[in-house]
Amino acid sequence: MVTDEQLSAIKGAKVLMVGAGGIGCELLKTLALSGFQDIHIIDMDTIEVSNLNRQFLFRQSHVGQSKAKVARDAILKVRPNINITPYHANVKDPDFNVDFFKEFSVVLNGLDNLDARRHVNRLCLAAGVPLVESGTTGFLGQVTVHVKGKTECYECQPKPAPKTYPVCTITSTPSKFVHCIVWAKDLLFAKLFGDKNQENDLNVRSTDSSGSSEHVEDVFEWKKDEDIEAYGKRVYDHVFGYNIEVALSNEDSWKNRNKPRPIYIKDVALTEVTQQNGDPDKTSVSGDPLSVSAMTILGLKNPQDVWGLAENSKVFLEALKLFFLKRAKEIGNLSFDKDDQLAVEFVTAAANIRAASFGIPLHSLFEAKGIAGNIVHAVATTNAIIAGLIVIEAIKVLQNNEKNYRMTYCLEHPARKMLLMPVEPFEPNKSCYVCSETPLWLEINTKRSKLRDLVEKIVKAKLGMNLPLIMHGSALLYEVGDDLEEDMVANYTANLEKVLAELPSPVTGGTILTVEDLQQELTCNINIKHREEFDEEKEPDGMVLSGWTQPVVSKNGDMSKENGASTSNTSQAVSVEAEEDDDIEMLPAVGAPAGKKRKLSEDSNFAGSDLPSVVDDSEAIAMLDENGERKKKRVQ
Amino acid sequence: MDGEELTEQETALYDRQIRVWGVDAQRRLSKSHVLVSGLNGTAVEFCKNIILAGVGSLTLNDDRLVSDELLSANFLVDQNISSEKPLAELCCDSLKDFNPMVRVLVQKGDLSSFGVDFFEKFDAVVVSCCSLKAKKLINEKCRKSSKRVAFYAVDCRDSCGEIFVDLQDYIYSKKKVDEMEECRLQYPSFEEAIAVPWKSLPRRLSKLYFAMRVIEIFESQNGRNPGQTSAADLPVVLNLRKELCETQSLSESQVPDTLVERLLAGTREFPPVCAIIGGILGQEVIKAISGKGDPLKNFFYFDAMDGKGVIEDLSPENK
Ligand SMILES: [Zn+2]
To answer: Where is the THIF-type NAD/FAD binding fold domain (chain B) (predicted)?
Structure first.
C-alpha cells in the first residue's frame, strides 16, 4: 500500500488544515491514522449542538469550546505521539500571512464559506504552497487540487453568485415561501428589532406616499403607556392588514396575479389554539436569553409541525411581546441569527401569516429555520469520504505526482456507474487575475484617448471590474463608491473627459497604472505603451490589451457578465445551491467548453469508448459549503 | 407516519441530517438494529457513521485481542494500548460516547455458528474481513429470517475496497420531480452473485472483482484468514488465476499480475480508503434502513490508484 517514499513524504510534511468542522474532524482523523506527524489547524468556531451529528470528535460537554482545540485533544488521546497545533482564530487574521503559509508543505481546506476560501487561495498562491480544496452538501461533495502554475487556482472559474430576489417581489408580490421568509427576516424583523437608522423597504409604496410614511413612523413605535399586547396587535394589523390593503389599491399589480387577502387580528380565531402542556411561567429552558421561547409558552412542541394561521398569529404576538419584555436591551441592535430561538419563531410566524395572505403554502418552524438561516444539509458519511479523498490527493501533492492529480466528485446518483468520479484538473486559466502572472500591456493613443475610454473599454469590459480605482503612482485618477465626497466625485467626473496625457498626473508611454477593485480584491498593473494609429476594422476599440486572454463566448452566445473576463475558455462543472424547498438545484454549466474538456482519468476499462467531457451530459456537480451557512453576500 | 415523534433532543442533534433525509427516515433509523462483525479500520469507520446517523442499536462482534497491526487504522483506540479486552469491547467503550442516543453492545462468539433467530434481531448485518465460507453462510441465514435482514460484506486490500450488498426483495421510495415513486429491486445472494459465469459478465467489469475472487478462493483453499497473505504467495495465486480463467473462459489479462500482487502484499490498511469505503457503506445502510434513495446493486469498488468509485451489478438474470 503505502510505499517507503510515500511514508517519508508523509512523515516529513507540515500540514495546515483550515477548518475543524464536518470535513475537518474527518480529515484530522484520517491524517493522523495515515501517519502525518505535524498538523496545524485553524478554526475560529466554537462547538454547537447541531455539529454533533457529524463532527464526531466533539461531545455535548464540549459545546461552546474551540473546535480546533477540542479536535486536537480528541486525536491525541488515540495518537499521542503526533504534533497537532490548534489556532482558535480567523484564517483572515493578519498573523496568518504569507510567511506563515510558506512554512507548510500543503494546505487542506475544509471551509464553509466562499470568502475564506478565496482568501486562502490567494495566500497559497502568494506563498507558493499547494492547496487541496473541498466542499460537501448532503450526499454531494468534491475535492480539487490547486498547485500554482500546474493546475487552475480556486478562482480560475467564476463562482455562482448567491441568490437574490427583486425588491418588489419581497415587498409586494411574493409567490414563494422563501419570499415571505426574506420579508419577515430582512424587513419586518430588522424594522422592529434592528438598527432604526437602516433603510428599510417594509412598507409598500402607496399613491399617497407622504401620508403613509407619517402613519408608518407611528405604527412601529411602542408608545410609552401602551399595553404591549395592544402594540403587538397594532403592528400585526398594520403589516398583514393595512399594508395589504394599500398594495391592493394598486390595481395594476394584480391584473395577472392572485390578489392577497388582508388579515386583521380580530378575524383570526386565536382561541382555537389549544394550550396543551403550555407553561406560561416557563419562558426559557435555561437562563440563556437565546432560549427564550414563545413556542414553549404556547405549548407548541414539535418544530416539524406546520402551524395554522391562528397558531402562527399567537406565536407572532407572543414572540414580539417576549422581545420587548425579556430582551428589551437588545432591541435596536438585533440582526437575525438562526441560533436565536425567539428570532426563528418570530420570523417563522410572520412569514407564515404573510404566506397565508398571499395563498402560499405554510411551512414548519424547522423548514423556515433552514431557509432563513441558509442551513446547508450535512451528513457524516459524505464528509468522511471527502476527507479520505483529500488525503489521497495530499499524498500525491507531497510527492509532486503531478500527472496523477485528480479532482473528484462525490455523487448522489451514479454517473457512468460511478459514485466517485475523478477528472483531470484544469491548467491555470491565463486570464485569471488571481493566479496569472502575465503582465498586462496596453497600447493606446495617450494623446487622443480619454480616461473614460480606458475605464469603459478596458477596466470594465475586459478586466470585469465593477467598482474600479485607478492610480498612477500615488495619484488617484479615478474611483467609484458610495462614500465619496462630492468634490472628489466632481474631480473624477472631470478626469473621465480628459485625454490621458492631460490628466493631473499625465499618463504617457512607459506609465504603469495600477487598477484595483477593492470589492473583488483584485489588483493589476497595466503598462502603457503609446501608439499613434489603430486599424479601425481590426482594432475598433482604438486600443489593444495584451497579456490577457479573450474569453471565448459560448456557442449560444451566453457569456456571463458578472465576472467579466474571468469567464474562461473552460467548461466548469456545475454548481449546486441549496434551494428553499430543501431540494438541490442544479445550475446550468457556466461558460462553454472550448476545445478543452475535463477528461476522465485514463482507464483501460474505458479504452476505446468515446468518453467526452463528464460535464456535458451527466450528473451535475456540487461545490458547496459544509456545515454552515453560506455567507449571504460577499464582503462589500 | 407511524411511531412516536422525535424528541426535542433528537431534533436538535440530527437537525442537519434531517434536512438531508427527512424526519421519517430519521425515525426509522432510530428504531433499527445493526450488527457489525470484524472490526478493522473500514468497519470502525462504518460504526462511527451509523452511530452518528442515530440507529437504535449497534452490536459489535470481534473477539480478537488487540495488536499494533490490528489498530493501525483504528481511531477509537490508542495504538500503543495493551489490553486483555477483546477488540469489540475496546471499540464499544469508545463508540458509546459518540451518541448517547445509540445503544452499543458486544456479541461474543463465531457468527457463522449462530442460528437464524440471532440474525433476525437485526435490520442490517455487516461482515468485514470475513472468509468466503462465512460470508455465504451468514448471508444465507439473513435470507432465511422471517423479516428482511440486509446483508453487507466489505473487504479492503491494499488501497482498494469492495462492498457487496444483498437487500433480497427490496421496495423503496424515490423522489421523482414532486412525487414519490415506488421502486423494486431483486438482489441475488453472495453465493448466487459470484456463481455468475465470468464469461457472461460485462466486459468492462472492474478488474478488482476478479482479483478479489481469486484471492478469496486462494485463502479458502489454503486455510488462510482473510487478509493473511503476502507477496510471496504470488506464484501460487497466479497459478490459481490461470486455472480459474481457463475454466471460466476469461482472458488472464482481466486479472492483471500487478493488481493481484498489490492486493496480496498490501495487508496494512490504508486509512483514506477505510474512510471512503466506510462512508459509502454507511450511506448504503442508512438508505436501506430508511427505505429512501437508490441503493447500490450489488457490488461497489474503489481503487485509490485511479480514484474511481464504481458500482457493478452482478446478478444471474443480468446476463
Ligand atoms: Zn486562477
So the answer is: 14-308
